[in-house]
């Protein structure tokens, strides 16, 4: 590697680790969570930044002023991508990272650059039963991933452009896992499947992750929000959410459980939800958006494995 290499990393901790390990080059850090909240197709414009600032402040109490420094400044650096010989993307197997990566690649494609774009993507690792994030890899494993990085083709970039366009424009039913089969994004199909299951189930009104949290309460001896968050982190599958996102969901699920003798227990509503004997769509409904789609604008029919537009 030399100084004509640009690393686009999925977080500050990974960026620091790579620099400590002397992966030479320039760095851009992708500090966004585009898997939640409204988006627009184009990233570097006032409409996009206004939407994101408002969402992050209202949902997670993140001051709007932070956004310019933490994310917009990094996009502005990306506009100089043409001066590099190689751009290396460092993203992970989950939906959180993949939607960020799709947006990033769409941004790069619009620059009409000609440099090589390669991908280092963690997930399944020999000797581990768990899917691993990049920061969880040993130095040797990280080096192996780097040495085996995949060069993305124009077809891959076209697919990323398509996925981001469908997501940001609210065409969720076109985001079918099969569109990713013939690509170098080996986890994208699983991510798109997981995305579909983020919409409320047609029977219970809860999505897959919300149901998982209730099942964890029923199965495990949970005594605190922190403990429940820890279990949820381990059992969330392909979502890749962090503590902040999971705590928001856990707090929203409080109506389904009580604390008895210091232990979380499902109440009647919680039992009904996981048994599928009542539908809590109206109880759960809020204004959350996934890109261009209202979370409660569709329901997921698990028997048909399809999304159905909700009739208003």
Describe this structure in words.
The protein is α/β, with parallel strands linked by helices. Helices cover 43% and strands 15% of the residues. It has a five-stranded mixed beta sheet with strand order 2-1-4-5-6. A three-stranded mixed beta sheet has the order 3-9-10. Helix 8 packs across helix 9 and helix 9 crosses helix 10. It folds into two domains: 192 residues, 3-Layer(aba) Sandwich (Dna Topoisomerase Vi A Subunit, Chain: A, domain 2), CATH 3.40.1360.10; 102 residues, Arc Repressor Mutant, subunit A. The chain is globular, with a radius of gyration of 20 Å. The N and C termini lie far apart (55 Å). Strand 4, helix 4 and strand 5 form a beta-alpha-beta unit.
Write the layout of secondary structure elements.
Layout: E1 5-9, H1 12-20, E2 26-29, E3 37-38, H2 46-60, H3 64-78, E4 86-91, H4 95-110, E5 116-121, H5 139-147, E6 150-151, H6 154-169, H7 188-196, H8 208-219, H9 225-235, H10 243-252, E7 257-260, E8 263-266, H11 268-275, H12 281-284, E9 289-291, E10 293-294, E11 298-301, E12 306-309
Helix pairs in contact: 2-3, 4-6, 8-9, 9-10
For this entry, give a set of tags:
312 residues; alpha/beta; Dna Topoisomerase Vi A Subunit, Chain: A, domain 2; Arc Repressor Mutant, subunit A; 2 domains; three-stranded mixed β-sheet; 12 strands; DUF1835 domain-containing protein
